[in-house]
Amino acid sequence: MTAPASSSGARAKGGRARAKGEPVVQGRNGAAAAAKPAVAPAVESTVAIGSADFKQLIAPGNGRTQSLAGFDADYTDIVQYIVSCTHKIWEEAGLGLIDTHYLHNVKVHTADGWYLGRDKVLADSIQAKSAYPDGRAYAESVVWSGNERDGFYTSHLILNVSHNTGHSVYGPPTGRRVMRMGIALCLVKENLIVEEWVVRDDLSVIRQLGLDRDATVAQLALRDAARPLGNYGDLERMLGQYAPEPLPAKTTPVEGFDLDDFLRRSLHEIWNRRMFNVIRDVYHENVEFHGPSGRDLYGRGDYTAFVLSLLAAFPDARFSIDQLFWNEDGAGGYRTSMRWSLVGTHEGYGIYGEPTGIRFRLWGMTQHVIKGGRVVEEWTVFNELALLKALYRARKASA
Fold this sequence. Notes:
By secondary structure, the chain is α+β, with helices and mostly antiparallel strands. It has helices at residues 54-58, 78-91, 98-101, 118-131, 202-208, 213-222, 259-272, 279-282, 300-313, 384-398, and strands at 24-26, 32-34, 102-110, 113-116, 136-147, 151-163, 177-189, 192-200, 283-291, 295-298, 318-328, 334-345, 359-371, 374-382.
């Protein structure tokens, strides 16, 4: 996503007045260059990427400056919409917002072909976030046209800077810093991206990761062969093509801190609705996490990376609490016992290697230490060895 046109009547380079409805490219230095006239209404007012600080781009503070029927109230214009929602989804880790910003049957065009459905948009985004968790999507420019009636087109030029600290489609993490250029062209109507075209400089990424280009190309070309067939039912994380819903409000409110509702609602938001930004509200900033295979983590960032690593490997996974009870510690705190299941299809690249396509149920037990309305410590164990054995059998069968 990129920078918008400035207010109506701006003068283009060379002294020619910009025609009514003519899109403008605005660069980092704020200079505007005229483009071909487009069929579009008069430009009202949009944020200026080149001359505005980041906080002004996200929250301009001057109210709506462009007609945006059907858009969320916090969006002031189409450029601020595309820059802001990109930030909220990628940098604030609110990946579940894809469900409210993409049409259920969105058509996405990529370098490898096209596909339908926001489920895959979300799954691919989790995979990328797990591989490059500290990514920064810098908006270099946005070219736009259209109106609230017919929809808006936004061409967003992004420079993405990140470190490869998780498994990606290219293999294990390298720890290397990567800068990648990409352009996302979106058709947006009433707050929803209904069609998207995306192209990125992937060969540059392969080089920056220190990988052999020819060997990597061969690996990617052969990767999709020999996927096993399976007779699996619906995971019921959502109903059909609808987005996953929040848990319904409790009919009988509980006096004081409702721990049962707190955990069920919070974990549903994080694991099933993919609202990873909720972790900041649920977990203490210095949370200690003790997990299987020597996973001793500290802080919300590390915990978020753990959640992403599992959902990147099982992108359609559904989380459920099978049993929950707790004791009070006498000082306003709690210690919980929670038995849970995470059922999904191994269709993502990540900590468990290349996808095998098998359906698997991870089940485990967790104890939380909760103080002041937040999780300050967590102990979790699950059937990871059984999973590794199932993956080994699947790979042997397909060899």
